[in-house]
Design goal:
339 residues, Quinone Oxidoreductase, Chain A, domain 1, binds zinc ion, Rossmann fold, 7-stranded mixed beta sheet
Length: 339
């Protein structure tokens, strides 16, 4: 079997790899598809280098079929179609004991701290598995992880039917938050500067504006009778997004910070006082978010095919990363790990 190895210095080498036999409590998965995530692009650019053992196999948004089951694994057998929730919490720290295992204080993120899915056969703990229904193709199955991110964000934002939600940033996660919030009955306005992503969002039925061309604050006020948004999601990770996010919510409105900021941004705390705003962080997902994502994906409520811009073979992972880096006409790129 083959794997795509990140060798550092923006270099990917695809070559033979010895499969890891599943140990106790583990399964070995024949990987079908793996999405390329913004996080993978950050790793490619040298971020979080201290967490990687080079050469490193990236990838955590995947689908596949179980190839082998280790001792002591119940409920799964070879041939089962699955996706992986790529979190390995310690189970013993205060966060884990408080029930916050997804943000364990010693969390291992599978695909960063341990080898990821961009390989033919991938061995992971069985507790990470979620079953994929037959109504979901394996291409769609590789989208479950980012959908689960969106489900978690929408849940943390306490989105309810009739809410007016603003999503700042229209990459795959911003679009998925918008779509998931709409399935919950929210009215959504998405802000994005990339023309391709704006057009695609509108094609998918999301009201979307370019904040460089429209006054977002004025627009939100106009559409909410002067009240402001019930909830704002900051997904752009930009200083401009942070500057705008505090000006959009209504009194006692919510802000959910989804983006990962490399440097501490400047935040207008006065707005929190003035409007009694609430700020919530949202990081990865819990098992129920994966189940919600699988439910939404499999009942056809999300236009997943439209979000998959292209599928490339494992050999072309490097090209896929370069394409994401260039931006432009791209949403989600999947890698076919069997090719
Ligand atoms: Zn990801
Ligand atoms: Zn822990």
């Amino acid at each position: 079997m083959r794997a795509a190895f990140f060798e550092g210095n923006q270099t990917i080498a695809v070559g033979p790899c010895v499969p890891v036999e599943p140990g106790p409590g583990e399964v070995q998965i024949q990987v079908a598809y793996c999405g390329i995530c913004g996080t993978d692009l950050h790793l490619f650019h040298g971020a979080m280098a201290h967490r990687l053992h080079l050469p490193h196999v990236m990838g955590h948004e995947m689908s596949g079929t179980i190839a082998a089951v280790g001792p002591g694994v119940d409920g799964y057998q070879p041939g089962d179609r699955v996706t992986v929730r790529p979190l390995d919490p310690c189970g013993a720290c205060p966060a884990c004991r408080a029930g916050h295992r997804h943000i364990c204080q010693n969390l291992k993120f599978i695909g960063i701290d341990t080898p990821g899915a961009l390989q033919g056969l991938w061995t992971v703990p069985a507790h990470t598995l979620h079953r994929l229904p037959v109504s979901l193709s394996l291409e769609q199955g590789a989208m479950v992880e980012p959908i689960a991110v969106a489900c978690h964000d929408v849940r943390m934002g306490e989105v309810e039917a009739g809410d007016y939600a603003v999503v700042i940033g229209g990459g795959p996660i911003g679009v998925l938050i918008s779509l998931v919030a709409q399935t919950r009955g929210a009215r959504v306005l998405m802000a994005e500067v990339n023309p391709f992503r704006l057009r695609l969002a509108r094609d998918l039925g999301i009201a979307a504006v370019n904040p460089a061309e429209a006054d977002l604050v004025a627009l939100v006020n106009e559409r909410t009778g002067g009240a402001g948004a019930d909830v704002v999601f900051e997904v752009s990770g930009s200083a401009a997004g942070v500057e705008t996010m505090t000006r959009l919510p209504r009194t006692r409105g919510r802000i959910v910070v989804v983006a990962i900021f490399g440097e501490a941004p400047k935040v207008d705390l006065f707005r929190f006082f003035w409007r009694e705003l609430r700020l919530t962080g949202a990081r990865v997902y819990e098992p129920e978010d994966f189940e919600a994502a699988i439910g939404l994906a499999s009942n056809g409520q999300l236009p997943l095919e439209r979000l998959i811009t292209m599928v490339v073979p494992l050999d072309r992972l490097g090209d896929g990363l370069r394409q994401l880096e260039r931006g432009g006409d791209v949403m989600k790129i999947l890698v076919n790990c069997a090719e």
